């Protein structure tokens, strides 16, 4: 069963990472329009800034959990497609400078 991991940028500048088995654009519409009290409902409008699709739901769940544990800097590098920067962002706090 196919599933998509996505990141939304909220109006307050924060990020929301989620998982859906429906079309990501349909899920985005729900985040912006459904009358549910939630993290994104209080930070509308939100926009889709990243998504990855997986064939297996278990892989998507693992990826969502992984991304949720990342720092803001690391999420932003992923959003920009700077995959080569991800390992370094995981191993060094930003206040330490270059190695």
What does this structure look like?
- With 99 residues, the protein is α+β, with helices and mostly antiparallel strands.
- It has 2 domains: 3-68, GIY-YIG endonuclease, CATH 3.40.1440.10; 71-99, no CATH class.
- The chain is 37% helix and 21% strand.
- It has a 3-stranded antiparallel β-sheet with strand order 2-1-3, sandwiched between helices.
- A hairpin with a 5-residue loop joins strand 1 (3-9) and strand 2 (15-20).
- The chain is globular, with a radius of gyration of 15 Å.
- The protein starts with a strand and ends in an 8-residue tail after the last helix.
- The mean pLDDT is 91.
- InterPro entries: GIY-YIG_endonuc (IPR000305), GIY-YIG_endonuc_sf (IPR035901), UPF0213_domain (IPR050190).
């Amino acid at each position: 069963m196919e599933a998509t991991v996505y990141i939304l940028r909220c109006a307050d500048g924060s990020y929301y990472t989620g998982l859906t088995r429906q079309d990501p654009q349909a899920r985005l519409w729900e985040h912006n329009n459904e009358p549910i009290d939630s993290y994104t409902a209080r930070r509308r409008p939100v926009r889709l800034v990243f998504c990855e699709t997986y064939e297996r739901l278990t892989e998507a769940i693992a990826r969502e959990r992984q991304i949720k544990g990342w720092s803001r800097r690391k999420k932003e590098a992923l959003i920009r497609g700077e995959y080569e920067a991800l390992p370094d962002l995981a191993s060094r706090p930003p206040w330490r400078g270059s190695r």
